[in-house]
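Slide 14.
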Amino acid sequence: MHKLMLQVQLLLAALSALLPLVPLEHRGRIAEILETAAKALAFTGVLGASADDIADKLARIRADVEAMATDGRAVTPDELAAAMSRVRAASADLREALAVAG
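Slide 15: predicted structure.
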């Protein structure tokens, strides 16, 4: 559980650095990442064994976000789309884990 909580916190920190680099018309997509992180954090107690897998997926998303933020340039739609596909996969896994736990 601690691994998942740590990854969510690190992801949120990385997003704060990335947000100014995301064009205004794509900032709503960042909300999808935040929503996935918030759900993961809210349900850490019921995720059980799936928590580590979800934490690993969030770590990969965070690595993408950090790389884009470190680049210091505007994020392209293709870069954002690639990151969002990983966010959607993590979100689907989170929903599945919650259904199994619930």
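Speaker note: Residues 11 and 63 are 8 Å apart (CA to CA).
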